[in-house]
Amino acid sequence: MLQQTRVEQGRDYWQRFLRRFPSVEALAAASEDEVLRLWQGLGYYSRARNLHAAARQVVALGHFPDTVEGLRALPGVGDYTAAAVASMAFGVPAAAVDGNVYRVLSRHYGISTAINTTEGHRLFAALAAELLPPRQAGTFNQALMDFGATLCTPRTPRCTECPVAETCVALREGRVEELPVKLVRHTTQVRRIKYIFIRCSGYVAIHRRADDDIWRGLWEPYVAEDDGKKTAETAASGTSDPVSGLLSSSVLLAHDVRHVLTHRVILADLYLADTAERPSLPSDYLWVPESSLDDYAKSRLVERLLALVPKV
Ligand code: SF4
Q1: What is the reported pLDDT for 219?
Q2: Distances from the Cα of 217 to the Cαs of 37, 210, 249, 250, in angstroms?
Q3: Fewest beta carbons within 10 Å, which of 32, 111, 150, 276?
Q4: What is the bridge-based pairing of β-strands 219-226 and 285-289?
């Protein structure tokens, strides 16, 4: 929950989540819709889906996995989380390498291999494993992370107070500022989406996003155009708007609303169509009372857009 989220904001989510799901069994028994609704606003919804799927896997297994391999097999658990949980909770001798550890090791040993490359991952994982005291793996992992978070910080590390300054290669060679090295990747893409809020006698058309795209399982208003993904209807008809003419007769409420995701920027337009009759929409759209929209989990972008729709 705290990834990309401030503690003050995350705390409320955590408490609400724990009140509703006090045990793994309670989480496993919930519907995905309910889990997403409680997560709404935190972003990165795949984490909520993974947490839910992991709870179901743990319940099916009958116990919480206590090995790196067992933990790694849970949805959403990668090398770092598996090693951190295994070492801290179960005393397994596994090195957990997070951003702090990359920074400390690269500075102390003067390593300029980029930390976000396969070669870098291998090299730092091997070094951390070599340094790990097998009987105190959890303590070592936590100490290294804390050291990176409090002393060997990204900016202005406190080298004068550092207990390992004497053996620090980066300090000796004046390279503290330039380490760790990270390759800059320019992969940001722009995706444009045009939504139409179609309203008819107090009802609104919404649909659930498909499995193979961003915001999987979340709800949104009618998508007239999406240059990142053509709908089946669009591809079949060859037009940009499956419901012919709807876009041109709608009122533009917001243009180029910007939403930043990890590797792309979404620019969204929102239109409003107040119609006397329900237009025929693709089969995955539902008509729901406008007053019940809060019951459906939505992306943060869609939340922001819906706040712009004038109430009737
Ligand atoms: S001397 Fe400075 S750069 Fe080197 S490990 Fe200590 S805090 Fe980090």
Answers
A1: 95
A2: 11, 6, 29, 27
A3: 276
A4: unpaired
- Ligand 1 atom with minimal separation from the 164 CA: 6
The answer to whether the beta carbons of residues 221 and 196 sit under 8 Å apart is yes
Q: For the domain bounded by 189-306, which CATH number is listed?
A: 3.90.79.10
Tell me the whole-structure pTM to 2 decimals: 0.66
Residues 276-300 have a mean pLDDT of 92
CB 149 near ligand 1, within 6 Å: no
- Token code pair at residue 236: 């079949």
- Give the domain 1-64 fold: Endonuclease III; domain 1 (1.10.340)
CA distance 206 to 119: 45
Q: What is the three-class DSSP state of 33?
A: helix
Hey, what are 177's tokens? 């500022």
The domains of the chain are located at 1-64, 91-185, 189-306
What pLDDT, on a 0 to 100 scale, did the predictor assign at position 229? 66
Contact 25, 58 (CB under 8 A): no
Distance CA 280, CA 196 (A): 14
Does domain 91-185 fall under CATH 1.10.3720.10? My reply is no
Nearest residue (CA) to ligand 1, atom 8: 152
2 Cα–ligand 1 center, Å: 27
